[in-house]
Amino acid sequence: MTTYLVTGGAGFIGSNFIHFMLGKYGDSIKIINVDVLTYAGNPENLAAVADYPGYSFIKADICDKEKITAIFRENEIDVVVHFAAESHVDRSIADPEVFVRTNVLGTLVMLNSAKGAWEKEDGTYPKGKKFIHISTDEVYGSLTEEGTYFYETTPYDPRSPYSASKAGSDMLVRSYMETYKFPANITNCSNNYGPYQFPEKLIPLIINNALQGKKLPVYGDGKNVRDWLYVEDHAKAIDLVCEKGGLFETYNIGGHNEKQNIEIVKIILDTLLDMLPDSDPRKKHISHDLITYVEDRKGHDRRYAIAPDKIKADLGWEPDTMFAEGIRLTIAWYFENTDWMAHVTSGEYQDYYDRMYK
Ligand code: NAD
Ligand code: TYD
To answer: What's the distance, CA 189 to chain centroid?
Structure first.
Protein backbone atom coordinates (compact mmCIF):
# COMPACT_ATOMS: atom_id res chain seq x y z
CA MET A 1 0.00 0.00 0.00
CA THR A 2 1.38 3.41 -0.96
CA THR A 3 1.34 6.10 1.72
CA TYR A 4 1.18 9.68 0.46
CA LEU A 5 2.11 12.67 2.55
CA VAL A 6 0.21 15.59 1.03
CA THR A 7 1.13 19.08 2.26
CA GLY A 8 -1.40 21.89 1.91
CA GLY A 9 -4.19 19.37 1.33
CA ALA A 10 -6.78 21.66 2.91
CA GLY A 11 -6.28 24.27 0.18
CA PHE A 12 -7.79 24.44 -3.29
CA ILE A 13 -5.69 22.08 -5.42
CA GLY A 14 -4.58 19.86 -2.52
CA SER A 15 -8.15 19.10 -1.47
CA ASN A 16 -9.19 18.37 -5.05
CA PHE A 17 -6.17 16.06 -5.38
CA ILE A 18 -7.12 14.18 -2.19
CA HIS A 19 -10.72 13.77 -3.39
CA PHE A 20 -9.50 12.51 -6.73
CA MET A 21 -6.98 10.05 -5.27
CA LEU A 22 -9.35 8.59 -2.66
CA GLY A 23 -12.07 8.38 -5.31
CA LYS A 24 -9.75 6.51 -7.66
CA TYR A 25 -7.81 4.28 -5.27
CA GLY A 26 -10.16 4.00 -2.26
CA ASP A 27 -8.77 1.92 0.61
CA SER A 28 -5.75 0.78 -1.36
CA ILE A 29 -3.79 3.94 -0.51
CA LYS A 30 -3.18 6.02 2.61
CA ILE A 31 -3.09 9.82 2.56
CA ILE A 32 -1.73 11.91 5.42
CA ASN A 33 -2.66 15.55 4.93
CA VAL A 34 -0.31 17.99 6.65
CA ASP A 35 -1.64 21.53 6.71
CA VAL A 36 -1.32 24.42 9.16
CA LEU A 37 -4.69 25.84 8.06
CA THR A 38 -3.89 29.40 7.07
CA TYR A 39 -6.74 31.59 5.79
CA ALA A 40 -6.57 29.48 2.59
CA GLY A 41 -6.81 26.10 4.29
CA ASN A 42 -10.26 24.86 5.18
CA PRO A 43 -11.08 21.49 6.80
CA GLU A 44 -14.58 21.78 5.25
CA ASN A 45 -12.90 21.02 1.91
CA LEU A 46 -12.21 17.50 3.18
CA ALA A 47 -15.45 16.90 5.07
CA ALA A 48 -16.59 14.28 2.53
CA VAL A 49 -13.48 12.13 3.05
CA ALA A 50 -12.73 12.87 6.72
CA ASP A 51 -13.97 9.44 7.81
CA TYR A 52 -12.19 7.41 5.13
CA PRO A 53 -9.99 4.82 6.85
CA GLY A 54 -7.07 5.71 4.59
CA TYR A 55 -7.24 9.47 5.24
CA SER A 56 -5.77 11.34 8.18
CA PHE A 57 -5.07 14.98 8.96
CA ILE A 58 -2.19 16.47 10.93
CA LYS A 59 -2.20 20.17 11.72
CA ALA A 60 1.40 21.26 11.29
CA ASP A 61 3.48 24.06 9.84
CA ILE A 62 5.87 22.86 7.12
CA CYS A 63 8.47 25.26 8.58
CA ASP A 64 8.38 23.35 11.89
CA LYS A 65 11.41 21.10 11.51
CA GLU A 66 10.78 19.01 14.63
CA LYS A 67 7.15 18.32 13.83
CA ILE A 68 7.77 17.48 10.17
CA THR A 69 10.71 15.21 11.05
CA ALA A 70 8.52 13.45 13.62
CA ILE A 71 5.79 12.88 11.00
CA PHE A 72 8.36 11.14 8.77
CA ARG A 73 9.69 9.14 11.74
CA GLU A 74 6.27 7.98 12.84
CA ASN A 75 4.92 7.13 9.38
CA GLU A 76 6.37 5.12 6.53
CA ILE A 77 5.92 7.76 3.81
CA ASP A 78 6.38 6.64 0.19
CA VAL A 79 5.40 9.69 -1.83
CA VAL A 80 5.33 13.35 -0.82
CA VAL A 81 3.06 15.63 -2.82
CA HIS A 82 4.06 19.10 -1.76
CA PHE A 83 1.34 21.69 -2.40
CA ALA A 84 1.63 23.81 0.75
CA ALA A 85 2.45 27.38 -0.15
CA GLU A 86 1.33 30.95 0.03
CA SER A 87 -0.28 31.16 -3.38
CA HIS A 88 -1.80 34.57 -4.08
CA VAL A 89 0.19 37.11 -6.12
CA ASP A 90 -1.64 40.18 -4.77
CA ARG A 91 -0.92 39.15 -1.18
CA SER A 92 2.74 38.61 -2.09
CA ILE A 93 2.94 42.17 -3.41
CA ALA A 94 1.51 43.50 -0.15
CA ASP A 95 3.55 41.25 2.18
CA PRO A 96 6.35 39.18 0.62
CA GLU A 97 7.94 37.86 3.81
CA VAL A 98 5.56 35.03 4.59
CA PHE A 99 5.98 33.85 0.98
CA VAL A 100 9.72 33.38 1.45
CA ARG A 101 9.18 31.70 4.81
CA THR A 102 6.59 29.16 3.67
CA ASN A 103 7.52 28.64 0.05
CA VAL A 104 11.31 28.62 0.36
CA LEU A 105 12.10 27.67 3.96
CA GLY A 106 9.09 25.36 4.24
CA THR A 107 10.17 23.51 1.10
CA LEU A 108 13.69 23.19 2.53
CA VAL A 109 12.28 21.61 5.69
CA MET A 110 10.19 19.19 3.61
CA LEU A 111 13.21 18.24 1.48
CA ASN A 112 15.50 17.71 4.47
CA SER A 113 12.91 15.71 6.37
CA ALA A 114 12.21 13.42 3.41
CA LYS A 115 15.91 13.05 2.67
CA GLY A 116 16.64 12.23 6.33
CA ALA A 117 13.92 9.61 6.42
CA TRP A 118 14.63 7.99 3.06
CA GLU A 119 18.38 8.18 2.31
CA LYS A 120 20.27 4.92 2.79
CA GLU A 121 23.82 4.73 4.16
CA ASP A 122 25.26 4.50 0.65
CA GLY A 123 23.45 7.70 -0.38
CA THR A 124 20.83 5.94 -2.51
CA TYR A 125 17.08 5.86 -1.98
CA PRO A 126 14.71 2.89 -1.79
CA LYS A 127 12.65 2.26 -4.92
CA GLY A 128 9.23 3.89 -4.79
CA LYS A 129 10.23 6.88 -2.65
CA LYS A 130 9.47 10.12 -4.42
CA PHE A 131 8.95 13.83 -3.72
CA ILE A 132 6.58 15.66 -6.09
CA HIS A 133 7.06 19.41 -5.87
CA ILE A 134 4.03 21.31 -7.13
CA SER A 135 5.03 24.55 -8.79
CA THR A 136 3.64 27.10 -11.18
CA ASP A 137 4.16 28.43 -14.70
CA GLU A 138 4.65 31.89 -13.16
CA VAL A 139 8.32 31.05 -12.48
CA TYR A 140 8.94 31.41 -16.24
CA GLY A 141 7.94 35.08 -16.25
CA SER A 142 5.69 36.82 -18.73
CA LEU A 143 5.18 36.12 -22.44
CA THR A 144 4.50 38.95 -24.83
CA GLU A 145 4.50 37.49 -28.31
CA GLU A 146 1.60 35.31 -29.41
CA GLY A 147 2.54 31.77 -30.35
CA THR A 148 5.35 31.54 -27.78
CA TYR A 149 5.06 29.10 -24.90
CA PHE A 150 6.70 28.02 -21.66
CA TYR A 151 8.67 24.79 -22.05
CA GLU A 152 10.47 22.87 -19.29
CA THR A 153 13.69 24.36 -20.65
CA THR A 154 12.50 27.99 -20.58
CA PRO A 155 14.81 30.02 -18.31
CA TYR A 156 13.28 31.14 -15.04
CA ASP A 157 12.31 34.83 -14.90
CA PRO A 158 10.03 35.30 -11.87
CA ARG A 159 8.61 38.80 -11.58
CA SER A 160 6.42 38.84 -8.45
CA PRO A 161 7.39 37.97 -4.88
CA TYR A 162 5.09 34.94 -5.20
CA SER A 163 6.75 33.61 -8.34
CA ALA A 164 10.21 34.47 -6.99
CA SER A 165 9.54 32.44 -3.87
CA LYS A 166 8.20 29.52 -5.93
CA ALA A 167 11.24 29.77 -8.20
CA GLY A 168 13.45 29.66 -5.09
CA SER A 169 11.71 26.50 -3.93
CA ASP A 170 12.04 24.91 -7.38
CA MET A 171 15.77 25.71 -7.39
CA LEU A 172 16.16 24.00 -4.02
CA VAL A 173 14.43 20.89 -5.35
CA ARG A 174 16.63 20.99 -8.48
CA SER A 175 19.72 21.29 -6.29
CA TYR A 176 18.68 18.29 -4.18
CA MET A 177 18.15 16.23 -7.32
CA GLU A 178 21.60 17.20 -8.63
CA THR A 179 23.58 17.12 -5.43
CA TYR A 180 22.01 14.23 -3.52
CA LYS A 181 20.31 12.39 -6.37
CA PHE A 182 17.19 12.99 -4.30
CA PRO A 183 14.21 11.29 -6.00
CA ALA A 184 11.94 14.12 -7.03
CA ASN A 185 9.82 15.60 -9.78
CA ILE A 186 8.82 19.20 -10.31
CA THR A 187 5.54 20.09 -11.98
CA ASN A 188 4.83 23.59 -13.30
CA CYS A 189 1.15 24.09 -13.91
CA SER A 190 -0.89 26.91 -15.38
CA ASN A 191 -3.84 28.65 -13.63
CA ASN A 192 -6.33 26.20 -12.14
CA TYR A 193 -10.05 26.69 -11.60
CA GLY A 194 -12.79 24.52 -10.10
CA PRO A 195 -14.49 23.66 -6.80
CA TYR A 196 -13.06 24.82 -3.45
CA GLN A 197 -11.05 27.73 -4.87
CA PHE A 198 -10.75 30.60 -2.42
CA PRO A 199 -12.55 33.71 -3.73
CA GLU A 200 -9.45 35.93 -3.74
CA LYS A 201 -8.60 34.36 -7.13
CA LEU A 202 -10.22 35.68 -10.32
CA ILE A 203 -12.81 33.02 -11.19
CA PRO A 204 -14.44 32.42 -7.77
CA LEU A 205 -14.22 36.14 -6.97
CA ILE A 206 -16.15 37.01 -10.12
CA ILE A 207 -18.74 34.26 -9.52
CA ASN A 208 -19.25 35.36 -5.91
CA ASN A 209 -19.45 39.07 -6.68
CA ALA A 210 -21.79 38.59 -9.64
CA LEU A 211 -24.18 36.50 -7.55
CA GLN A 212 -24.31 39.36 -5.05
CA GLY A 213 -24.64 42.07 -7.68
CA LYS A 214 -21.26 43.52 -6.67
CA LYS A 215 -18.78 45.20 -9.03
CA LEU A 216 -16.49 42.88 -10.97
CA PRO A 217 -12.95 44.28 -10.66
CA VAL A 218 -10.86 43.81 -13.81
CA TYR A 219 -7.24 44.87 -13.50
CA GLY A 220 -5.75 47.22 -16.10
CA ASP A 221 -7.11 46.76 -19.61
CA GLY A 222 -8.39 43.24 -18.90
CA LYS A 223 -6.28 41.84 -21.73
CA ASN A 224 -3.79 39.87 -19.64
CA VAL A 225 -3.88 36.24 -20.68
CA ARG A 226 -3.93 33.17 -18.44
CA ASP A 227 -3.96 29.51 -19.53
CA TRP A 228 -6.80 27.88 -17.55
CA LEU A 229 -6.91 24.24 -16.47
CA TYR A 230 -9.76 22.44 -14.68
CA VAL A 231 -8.37 21.38 -11.32
CA GLU A 232 -9.34 17.70 -11.66
CA ASP A 233 -7.20 17.51 -14.80
CA HIS A 234 -4.29 18.83 -12.75
CA ALA A 235 -4.97 16.13 -10.11
CA LYS A 236 -4.91 13.47 -12.84
CA ALA A 237 -1.60 14.78 -14.14
CA ILE A 238 -0.04 14.70 -10.66
CA ASP A 239 -1.27 11.13 -10.14
CA LEU A 240 0.47 10.15 -13.38
CA VAL A 241 3.68 11.91 -12.33
CA CYS A 242 3.58 10.06 -8.98
CA GLU A 243 3.10 6.77 -10.75
CA LYS A 244 5.15 7.05 -13.95
CA GLY A 245 7.14 10.30 -13.90
CA GLY A 246 10.79 9.70 -14.72
CA LEU A 247 13.04 10.45 -11.73
CA PHE A 248 14.44 14.00 -11.70
CA GLU A 249 12.11 15.10 -14.51
CA THR A 250 10.16 18.35 -14.68
CA TYR A 251 6.73 18.42 -16.33
CA ASN A 252 4.80 21.46 -17.54
CA ILE A 253 1.05 21.01 -17.14
CA GLY A 254 -1.51 23.07 -19.06
CA GLY A 255 -4.45 22.64 -21.37
CA HIS A 256 -3.80 25.08 -24.22
CA ASN A 257 -6.68 27.19 -22.99
CA GLU A 258 -5.53 30.78 -23.17
CA LYS A 259 -8.07 33.47 -22.41
CA GLN A 260 -7.95 37.18 -21.67
CA ASN A 261 -9.27 38.07 -18.23
CA ILE A 262 -12.08 40.13 -19.71
CA GLU A 263 -13.19 37.12 -21.79
CA ILE A 264 -13.28 35.01 -18.62
CA VAL A 265 -15.43 37.59 -16.82
CA LYS A 266 -17.87 37.79 -19.74
CA ILE A 267 -18.09 33.99 -20.03
CA ILE A 268 -18.88 33.74 -16.32
CA LEU A 269 -21.61 36.38 -16.60
CA ASP A 270 -23.19 34.72 -19.63
CA THR A 271 -22.98 31.26 -18.06
CA LEU A 272 -24.55 32.49 -14.82
CA LEU A 273 -27.40 34.08 -16.77
CA ASP A 274 -27.88 30.87 -18.72
CA MET A 275 -27.78 28.56 -15.70
CA LEU A 276 -29.87 30.53 -13.19
CA PRO A 277 -33.64 30.04 -13.52
CA ASP A 278 -35.65 33.26 -14.00
CA SER A 279 -37.22 32.67 -10.59
CA ASP A 280 -33.83 33.02 -8.85
CA PRO A 281 -33.70 36.51 -7.28
CA ARG A 282 -29.91 36.70 -7.84
CA LYS A 283 -30.44 36.70 -11.58
CA LYS A 284 -31.82 40.22 -11.66
CA HIS A 285 -28.52 41.68 -10.32
CA ILE A 286 -26.38 40.09 -13.00
CA SER A 287 -25.33 42.11 -16.03
CA HIS A 288 -22.23 43.14 -17.96
CA ASP A 289 -22.65 46.60 -16.36
CA LEU A 290 -21.03 45.14 -13.23
CA ILE A 291 -17.67 44.97 -15.04
CA THR A 292 -15.41 47.64 -13.52
CA TYR A 293 -11.89 48.35 -14.72
CA VAL A 294 -9.65 49.06 -11.72
CA GLU A 295 -6.02 50.03 -11.19
CA ASP A 296 -3.63 47.43 -12.59
CA ARG A 297 -1.70 44.98 -10.42
CA LYS A 298 1.91 46.13 -9.91
CA GLY A 299 4.26 44.28 -12.28
CA HIS A 300 1.28 42.44 -13.78
CA ASP A 301 2.51 39.55 -15.97
CA ARG A 302 0.97 39.92 -19.42
CA ARG A 303 0.57 36.38 -20.63
CA TYR A 304 1.18 32.82 -19.46
CA ALA A 305 0.94 29.84 -21.81
CA ILE A 306 2.18 26.32 -21.20
CA ALA A 307 3.48 23.87 -23.78
CA PRO A 308 2.35 20.54 -22.30
CA ASP A 309 4.06 18.49 -25.03
CA LYS A 310 6.38 16.57 -22.70
CA ILE A 311 3.76 15.28 -20.26
CA LYS A 312 1.60 14.30 -23.23
CA ALA A 313 4.41 12.45 -25.00
CA ASP A 314 5.97 10.81 -21.93
CA LEU A 315 3.00 10.11 -19.66
CA GLY A 316 0.05 10.26 -22.07
CA TRP A 317 -1.64 13.09 -20.15
CA GLU A 318 -4.15 15.37 -21.80
CA PRO A 319 -6.88 17.44 -20.18
CA ASP A 320 -10.35 15.86 -20.25
CA THR A 321 -12.40 18.94 -19.42
CA MET A 322 -12.79 21.75 -21.92
CA PHE A 323 -13.32 25.25 -20.53
CA ALA A 324 -17.00 25.51 -21.57
CA GLU A 325 -17.76 22.38 -19.53
CA GLY A 326 -15.35 23.13 -16.67
CA ILE A 327 -16.77 26.58 -16.03
CA ARG A 328 -20.32 25.16 -15.85
CA LEU A 329 -19.17 22.47 -13.40
CA THR A 330 -17.43 25.15 -11.35
CA ILE A 331 -20.40 27.51 -11.30
CA ALA A 332 -22.74 24.62 -10.45
CA TRP A 333 -20.46 23.79 -7.49
CA TYR A 334 -20.58 27.37 -6.21
CA PHE A 335 -24.39 27.39 -6.59
CA GLU A 336 -24.59 24.28 -4.43
CA ASN A 337 -22.08 25.44 -1.85
CA THR A 338 -23.29 28.84 -0.73
CA ASP A 339 -22.59 27.86 2.92
CA TRP A 340 -18.96 27.12 2.03
CA MET A 341 -18.69 30.56 0.42
CA ALA A 342 -20.35 32.23 3.41
CA HIS A 343 -17.90 30.55 5.79
CA VAL A 344 -14.75 31.42 3.85
CA THR A 345 -15.80 35.02 3.24
CA SER A 346 -16.55 35.76 6.88
CA GLY A 347 -13.76 37.15 9.05
CA GLU A 348 -10.35 37.78 7.49
CA TYR A 349 -11.63 37.76 3.90
CA GLN A 350 -13.67 40.92 4.36
CA ASP A 351 -10.65 42.85 5.68
CA TYR A 352 -8.57 41.61 2.75
CA TYR A 353 -11.29 42.52 0.26
CA ASP A 354 -11.72 46.01 1.70
CA ARG A 355 -7.96 46.60 1.60
CA MET A 356 -7.64 45.35 -1.98
CA TYR A 357 -10.72 46.82 -3.63
CA LYS A 358 -11.45 49.81 -1.31
P1 NAD B 1 -4.09 27.50 -1.65
O2 NAD B 1 -3.63 28.85 -1.21
O3 NAD B 1 -5.54 27.29 -1.97
O4 NAD B 1 -3.72 26.43 -0.52
C5 NAD B 1 -2.50 26.41 0.14
C6 NAD B 1 -2.61 25.44 1.32
O7 NAD B 1 -1.33 25.40 1.97
C8 NAD B 1 -3.63 25.88 2.37
O9 NAD B 1 -4.40 24.78 2.79
C10 NAD B 1 -2.77 26.40 3.51
O11 NAD B 1 -3.36 26.25 4.80
C12 NAD B 1 -1.53 25.53 3.37
N13 NAD B 1 -0.33 26.17 3.94
C14 NAD B 1 0.10 27.44 3.73
N15 NAD B 1 1.20 27.67 4.48
C16 NAD B 1 1.47 26.51 5.15
C17 NAD B 1 2.48 26.13 6.07
N18 NAD B 1 3.44 26.98 6.46
N19 NAD B 1 2.45 24.87 6.57
C20 NAD B 1 1.48 24.00 6.19
N21 NAD B 1 0.50 24.31 5.33
C22 NAD B 1 0.49 25.56 4.82
O23 NAD B 1 -3.16 27.12 -2.86
P24 NAD B 1 -3.53 26.29 -4.19
O25 NAD B 1 -4.11 27.23 -5.19
O26 NAD B 1 -4.24 25.06 -3.82
O27 NAD B 1 -2.05 25.94 -4.69
C28 NAD B 1 -1.40 24.76 -4.24
C29 NAD B 1 -0.02 24.68 -4.86
O30 NAD B 1 -0.14 24.68 -6.27
C31 NAD B 1 0.88 25.86 -4.51
O32 NAD B 1 2.18 25.38 -4.29
C33 NAD B 1 0.83 26.75 -5.74
O34 NAD B 1 2.02 27.48 -5.89
C35 NAD B 1 0.65 25.71 -6.83
N36 NAD B 1 -0.06 26.18 -8.05
C37 NAD B 1 -1.28 26.79 -7.94
C38 NAD B 1 -1.97 27.17 -9.10
C39 NAD B 1 -3.34 27.80 -9.03
O40 NAD B 1 -3.88 28.20 -10.08
N41 NAD B 1 -3.98 27.90 -7.89
C42 NAD B 1 -1.40 26.93 -10.35
C43 NAD B 1 -0.14 26.30 -10.43
C44 NAD B 1 0.50 25.92 -9.25
P1 TYD C 1 -5.38 35.29 -10.14
O2 TYD C 1 -6.59 34.42 -10.08
O3 TYD C 1 -5.00 36.08 -8.93
O4 TYD C 1 -4.18 34.33 -10.61
P5 TYD C 1 -2.65 34.72 -11.05
O6 TYD C 1 -2.37 36.11 -10.69
O7 TYD C 1 -1.86 33.76 -10.23
O8 TYD C 1 -2.59 34.44 -12.51
O9 TYD C 1 -5.53 36.30 -11.34
C10 TYD C 1 -5.77 35.84 -12.66
C11 TYD C 1 -5.77 37.05 -13.56
O12 TYD C 1 -6.90 37.87 -13.25
C13 TYD C 1 -4.55 37.94 -13.38
O14 TYD C 1 -4.16 38.46 -14.65
C15 TYD C 1 -5.03 39.08 -12.50
C16 TYD C 1 -6.50 39.20 -12.88
N17 TYD C 1 -7.42 39.64 -11.81
C18 TYD C 1 -8.31 40.68 -12.05
O19 TYD C 1 -8.35 41.28 -13.16
N20 TYD C 1 -9.17 41.05 -11.05
C21 TYD C 1 -9.17 40.44 -9.83
O22 TYD C 1 -9.95 40.86 -8.92
C23 TYD C 1 -8.25 39.37 -9.60
C24 TYD C 1 -8.21 38.67 -8.29
C25 TYD C 1 -7.40 39.00 -10.63
So the answer is: 8
Answer yes or no: is the C-beta of 226 below 6 A from any ligand 2 atom: yes
- Condensed to tens digits (0 to 9), the pLDDT of residues 228-273 reads 999 999 999 999 999 999 999 999 999 899 999 999 999 999 999 9
Closest ligand, as measured to the CA of 34: 1
Provide the pairing of β-strand 192-193 with 229-230.
parallel
Burial tier of 340 (Cβ tally within 10 Å: 0-12, 13-18, 19+): middle
Pocket of ligand 1 (CB under 6 A): 7-8, 10-14, 35-38, 40-41, 61-63, 83-87, 102, 106, 134, 136, 166, 189, 191-192, 198
Q: What is the DSSP string of 51-68?
A: T-TTEEEEE--TT-HHHH
263 annotated active-site:
no
Please report, for residues 23, 27, 36, 94, the alpha-carbon distance to residue 64 in angstroms, rounded to integers and kept in the order given: 31, 30, 10, 24
Query: Closest ligand 1 atom, CA of 193?
Result: 40
Whole-structure pTM value = 0.98
Neighbours of 277 (CB within 10 A): 6
